[in-house]
Write a structure and sequence with these properties.
The complex is a heterodimer of chains A (about 525) and B (about 475). By secondary structure, chain A is mainly α. Chain A has a domain at about 280-495. Chain A has helices at about 1-20, 25-55, 85-105, 110-130, 135-145, 145-155, 160-195, 200-205, 210-230, 235-245, 245-270, 275-280, 280-300, 305-325, 330-360, 370-375, 375-390, 395-410, 415-435, 455-470, 475-490, and strands at about 65-70, 75-80. In chain A, strands 1-2 form a two-stranded antiparallel sheet. In chain A, strand 1 (about 65-70) and strand 2 form a beta hairpin. In chain A, helix 15 (about 330-360) packs antiparallel against helix 17. Chain B has helices at about 5-10, 10-30, 30-55, 70-95, 100-120, 125-140, 150-180, 185-190, 195-215, 220-230, 230-255, 265-285, 290-310, 315-340, 360, 365-375, 385-395, 400-425, 430-435, 445-460, 465-475, and strands at about 60, 65. Chain B has a two-stranded antiparallel sheet. Chain B starts with a helix and ends with a helix. Chain B is mostly helical. Chain B has one domain. Mean pLDDT of chain B is about 90; it is low at about 430-440. The chains are: A mainly alpha (about 525), B mainly alpha (about 475). The interface between A and B is medium-sized, with 33 and 30 residues.
């Protein structure tokens, strides 16, 4: 039941924040902050509790589970379940939610109540995506996330926001409708083969189907996840949406919405369609490598600071896609670390860009120079996160991307070599950013206030997380390990030739009580 | 006609009685409020009699009407929708001068026609119901409001006559081939005379006639003009009640006769469905008038419904019943907002410009409208989401891939124009827009809209009880 509360608490917090706006602008901010802090505390308590009890090492079950009937006529159930990866993602969600609220403390003055309502509902829907193990429910949250996000960008965004929101919404909606068709296709294929019509993840694992069907259904999922990720040909919504969004919206987009696509691939796409994913691995990995290099090159070419950070996201998420389709334990562990590190580092960069824009009212790199001399604290933070972004050892991104590369190396040496080119280009753009914005002489005679206590606290928290992840990633790796091994077992067929098709897991009628049955 | 037969048709009788009472009341004492009260009482009585009638089901009342769960379910939808339309009409007419009472009389008669259609199992009752509905609608659409809706009324009149001619000719051909006008017997005979040319032609003509009434592409030309010209509450009625009645009839007729054996007919319907989904959505993109935009969107929604219509099996009927209910509640809400939204001095708020900044002037009204638009677009938490899911469910289940992908493409396109309206609503308002927002409307209007929004969210979040009811009642043999 705790899982439902994790979502309902955020939904309720959002409503209260909205209603409280009539009492003053400060109310929604404090209510959101308290809601999120309480949730983070609960999650942290859960995490340490699982650690202490050793539940994280027990491979058989979910850490927590909730299974209730919802729409029996459709076979849809309220089925939520938590594993190690989901727990890490929830922690990231809440952490970045707090960052986003804190970062928009002064920036958002217009309709604060409705703004915070939307913020909390985005987080609730994202938490739902990380927890849902019923495909209908998963799709429900997947779609639900978009509406508040659409309002956040559309109402509080910058100049070109209407265009950006429409593009974002149509890209994501159209692709997820394809996923809906694929979900239904899987539902019927499974139902006809076994007689059990269910949307349950555990039940649908290992559905027997022809390789053509599997490929078509897999592509339906892939398109939806690839748009969110974003992978190369369908990435064009991202720079616009990120650039036009308010700071908090950008943090949510980069930190969380992108992760949802990766998480979907990790939990649903490969385990449900291992053979098709295996056959599709080469094109997907090529797209990933192309994304890594293309994103980094385009980032280098931008003069709009926010757009630049947005393009670096494409590059970093390329590593995630690459790691997922390499599908070995090293690469997957790397994927999880990249997801967290990218969420924190890119989120921090967006916060810095937002703070900068609040002060000098432009995002144009050409109009900045020598800002370090007037704002040493902001300059230092920007430097650190730029270094994180280029993959400096000792910071989180390095650990993740390095693990992904080792994993990919075992699968394909040329791809690993190509992907490591991304490191070189990222060095160029990251240093370029710091050099042009913060170093040099203060040509424009800027006189600006440096970070105050609130802003410094936000940065300090993010620096702490990214450094901890870089120096001692073991807690994260340990939390994710068993969950990833379980996913690996679900998709064991990924590394086998298509002929050797395993029997569908026993007792898979319904219930996600580890459909693969027993440890291997 | 036995007493049981009489009980089974009591809801229809209640409607007719209410209509007669309004006629008498108008003769003696004209009062807008009194007329409304009689209308609502009549509708409420008819709804209250539904469970009583349900005890007699399934029952063949004379050769003309089949009162079964299916008929009663759709009658319920029709009655509820008419109830909402009556309240919107009251809010709408109060702001305008003129004789208002006759509108309610016609509304009840039109609802009776639609209910007869839902129960009809014979060409004669089909024709009676359809004419009762259409004849009331000519007048309703042209109900005095200015020059523009006389044009709309005449358009509808001509259209209805043409489509009736198609229908009659189709019926004649079918009668000629089978020698009966009862759906049940007709289906048996049609099944034995495997696809004689004239029979297929008759079915095709019938499909064309119904296509006109349902405004499917390419028989849709009248829709935007009529929707724009009619008073907003009447537009809501045309878009919901008349569609529910005709669609319920079409589903009953064609599932008795069976579309699948007639390959030509199946192809015809497939083409119509694809054209409606894509055409309706593409044309809606070009509109700046909200009523015209919703008119094209309703064309597309009827196209979506055909996906379930063409899918076979019990799932199809459930999907149609659910989607029609969701669509009715949503469309009523959308046109209800237009009906109560403040326009310029007596005119309706129909252009996009009227809705600019509505979110900040009238937050509640705008929230309701946004919810309705999201439901039409099929976003989760709303009834439209579950409805669209059901349609896709039915379509994928019957492997109608062309239709399924047209539905997906159409939904993708439709997002653009629904969202454009939402975007306009939360833009910062113009200065002059802020002043006229003061015009208040009675609480009944807000309450009805709020209830409709409640229905939308209820069906979107916890539809299980409603689906359960559909599966228990709305079944065809």
């Amino acid at each position: 039941m705790i899982l439902a509360w994790l979502i309902l608490w955020l939904l309720a917090g959002g409503l209260v924040a909205w209603l409280s706006a009539c009492r003053g602008d400060a109310w929604p901010r404090w209510i959101s902050l308290i809601t999120l802090l309480v949730e983070l505390a609960v999650l942290a308590a859960l995490w340490t509790g699982y650690y202490a009890h050793g539940s994280l090492a027990a491979p058989e079950r979910w850490l927590a589970e909730l299974d209730l009937p919802w729409i029996p006529a459709l076979g849809a159930r309220i089925h939520l379940a938590l594993d190690g990866v989901g727990l890490l993602m929830l922690l990231l969600t809440n952490f970045l939610g707090i960052v986003a609220v804190a970062a928009s403390w002064r920036g958002i003055r217009y309709r604060t109540g409705f703004f915070h309502f939307n913020m909390l509902w985005i987080l609730a829907a994202i938490a739902g995506v990380f927890l849902a193990v019923d495909l209908f429910m998963f799709y429900f949250f997947w779609e639900l996330m978009l509406v508040p996000l659409y309002f956040v960008i559309g109402i509080w965004g910058h100049e070109n926001r209407v265009y950006a929101t429409l593009k974002f919404f149509i890209f994501t909606q159209a692709s997820s409708l394809l996923m809906l068709v694929a979900i239904l296709g899987l539902y019927f294929v499974h139902g006809r083969a076994t007689g059990v019509y269910t949307f349950d993840y555990g039940g649908l694992l290992g559905t027997p189907m022809s390789s053509f069907t599997e490929m078509v259904l897999m592509l339906g999922f892939f398109v939806a996840f690839a748009v969110k990720l974003p992978a190369l040909p369908v990435h064009t919504w991202l720079p616009d949406a990120h650039t036009e969004a308010p700071t908090a919206g950008s943090v949510h987009l980069a930190g969380l919405v992108l992760k949802v696509g990766a998480f979907g691939m990790l939990r649903f796409l490969v385990p449900l369609f291992p053979h098709a994913a295996s056959r599709f691995a080469l094109p997907a990995m090529l797209l990933a490598v192309a994304g890594i290099i293309y994103g980094a090159l385009l980032a280098f070419a931008q003069t709009d600071l926010k757009r630049m950070v947005a393009y670096t996201s494409i590059s970093h998420m390329g590593f995630v896609l690459l790691g997922i389709f390499a599908w070995n334990q090293l690469a997957l562990q790397g994927v999880v670390v990249v997801m967290i590190a990218h969420g924190v580092s890119t989120g921090a960069l967006f916060v810095i860009v937002g703070d900068l824009q609040d002060r000098i009212h432009t995002r144009d790199l050409d109009r900045m120079s020598g800002l370090w001399s007037v704002m040493p604290r902001m300059g230092g933070a920007a430097m650190l996160f730029a270094l994180a972004s280029l993959g400096l050892p000792g910071l989180g991104n390095f650990v993740g991307e390095f693990l992904v590369l080792i994993g990919v190396y075992q699968v394909s040496i040329p791809l690993a070599a190509l992907a490591s080119l991304g490191f070189i280009v990222s060095t160029v753009y990251a240093l370029w950013l710091v050099e042009r914005a913060f170093l040099g002489r203060n040509l424009n005679k800027w006189r600006l206030p440096d970070y105050n206590l609130r802003e410094s606290t936000v940065m300090a928290a993010m620096i702490a997380v990214i450094t901890a992840l870089g120096i001692y990633p073991q807690p994260v790796l340990g939390t994710a390990r068993v969950a990833l091994e379980k996913l690996g077992r679900y998709a064991a067929a990924y590394h086998q030739p298509a002929a050797a098709r395993p029997a569908p897991p026993a007792g898979s009628a319904h219930a996600g009580r580890d459909g693969a049955g027993g440890s291997s | 006609m036995s007493i049981q037969d009489f009980i089974a048709v009591l809801p229809l009788v209640a409607l007719a009685t209410a209509a007669v009472m309004i006629m008498l009341a108008i003769t003696f004492y004209r009062s807008h409020l009194l007329t409304l009260a009689i209308t609502l009482a009549g509708l409420a009585a008819a709804v209250a009699l539904l469970p009583l009638a349900a005890r007699q089901t399934p029952r063949q009342v004379t050769a003309l009407l089949t009162i079964d769960g299916y008929a009663l379910f759709f009658t319920g939808v029709i009655l509820a929708a008419t109830f909402a339309v009556a309240i919107f009409s009251y809010v709408y007419l109060r702001r305008r001068t003129g004789q208002h009472d006759e509108l309610y009389l016609l509304l009840l008669l039109a609802a009776l026609g639609a209910a007869v259609l839902a129960a009809s199992s014979h060409f004669a009752s089909l024709f009676l119901g359809l004419e009762l509905l259409s004849s009331s609608l000519f007048v309703l659409i042209a109900y005095p409001r200015g020059r523009i809706n006389i044009e709309a009324g005449i358009k509808y009149l001509i259209l209805a006559s043409v489509s009736t001619a198609f229908l009659l000719f189709g019926m004649a051909l079918i009668y000629d081939q089978t020698g009966t006008m009862e759906f049940g017997r007709l289906a048996v005979i049609a099944g034995n005379t495997d696809g004689a040319g004239l029979l297929t032609a008759g079915l095709g003509l019938l499909a064309v006639g119904l296509g006109f009434k349902l405004a499917l592409v390419p028989f849709h030309m009248w829709t935007p003009d009529v929707y724009q010209g009619a008073p907003a509450p009447i537009t809501a009625f045309v878009a919901t009640v008349s569609k529910v009645g005709v669609f319920a009839l079409a589903l009953r007729f064609f599932s008795e006769v069976g579309i699948h054996p007639h390959a030509h007919l199946f192809l015809l319907f497939t083409l119509i469905a694809v054209a409606s989904m894509l055409g309706g959505n593409l044309l809606a993109l070009l509109q700046n008038n909200v009523k015209r935009m919703l008119a094209y969107s309703s064309i597309a929604h009827l196209g979506y419904l055909l996906v379930a219509f063409l899918a076979s099996g019990p799932l199809a009927v459930t999907a149609v019943a659910f989607y029609l209910s969701a669509y009715t509640a949503t469309t009523l809400g959308a046109f209800g907002v237009i009906a109560v939204a403040p326009g310029h001095s007596g005119a309706e708020a129909e252009t996009l410009q009227h809705y600019r900044g509505l979110f900040w002037r009238r937050p509640w009204l705008a929230a309701v409208f946004a919810a309705m638009l999201f439901s039409l677009a099929g976003i989760p938490l709303t009834a439209g989401f579950i409805g669209k899911f059901y349609l896709l469910d039915a379509g994928v289940g019957s492997s109608l891939w062309l239709l399924v992908f047209s539905l997906v493409a159409g939904s993708g396109i439709s997002l653009y124009y629904y969202l454009r309206l939402v975007v306009v609503m939360y833009m910062r308002p113009h200065r002059e827009g802020a002043r006229e927002g003061a015009d208040a409307f009675p609480w009944t209007g807000s309450l009805t809209l709020t209830l409709l929004m409640g229905v939308i969210f209820w069906l979107g979040v916890y539809p299980a009880p409603f689906i359960d009811m559909i599966e228990r009642t709305a079944r065809l043999k």
